[in-house]
Amino acid sequence: MAITGITGMLAKGQPQAWLPEGFGQLVIQPVQAMSAAIQAIGSTQANANSNSYRVPVVKTDPSAAWVAEGEEIPASEQDLDEDADRFHKLAGLTIVSSELANDSNPDAAEQVGLGLARDIARKLALHERGCSGLSVSVAG
Fold first, then answer.
1. Could you give the count of Cα atoms lying within 13 Å of 11 in the half-sphere of its Cβ?
2. In Å, how far are 48, 98, 117, 123 from 95, measured between CA atoms?
3. For 69-93, what is each residue's pLDDT tens digit?
4. What is the pTM of this model?
5. 17 CB burial (10 A radius; 0-12, 13-18, 19+)
6. Most-buried pick from 32, 34, 49, 76 (CB within 10 A)?
7. 3-state SS string over the chain?
8. Which residues lie below 8 Å from residue 91, measured CB to CB, with a gap of 6+?
C-alpha cells in the first residue's frame, strides 16, 4: 500500500507524517478488523477538534396514543441524559527508511502498519479486560 499524500506535523521543521486517509487504511481499519472489543461495541468517528465525546442517553421514551380523527394529540415528554468521557490515546511510532518503504515487496509500510494494528488490538483487549500484562491472542 503506497502512502502518497503527506502533511506537516504541528511543529514547524518537524518530519512529515501521513494524511489521515492513509493512516486509516494503514492502521485504523486493520485494528477495527482485529479488535474483538471494537467489533462487539462498534466504533464511530469523532470531531478531531474536541478532547471529549458526549453521547445522549434516552432514559424514557415519549409515548404515542390512539386518538380519534380531529381529536387533540396529547403531548408527552422524553427524559434525556448525557454520558461523556475524554478521549484516550493508544499510539505507536516506528521508523521506516524511505528506501525500505519505496523498494520493498511486500510493501513495508503495510507490514509495519499491520504490526502496529496487531499490538493496538492486543492492548485494547487488555484494557477491555482491565489488565495490562496478560497474554492475549489477536487474529491476523
1. 3
2. 25, 9, 15, 21
3. 999 999 999 999 998 888 777 888 8
4. 0.53
5. middle
6. 34
7. CCCCCEEECCCCCCCEEECHHHHHHHHHHHHHHHCHHHHHHCCCCCCCCCCEEEEEEEEECCCCCCCCCCCCCCCCCCEEEEEEEECCCCCCCCCCCHHHHHHCCCCHHHHHHHHHHHHHHHHHHHHHCCCCCCCCCCCC
8. none
Reading the block at residue 22, the C-alpha cell is: 492513509
Query: Which residue is associated with the grid cell 482485529?
Result: 34
C-alpha cell at 53: 465525546
- Is residue 116 a contact partner of residue 91, using CB atoms and an 8 Å limit? no
pLDDT of residue 10: 46
33 CB-near residues (< 8 Å, 6+ apart): 139, 140
Grid cell 487488555 — which residue?
126
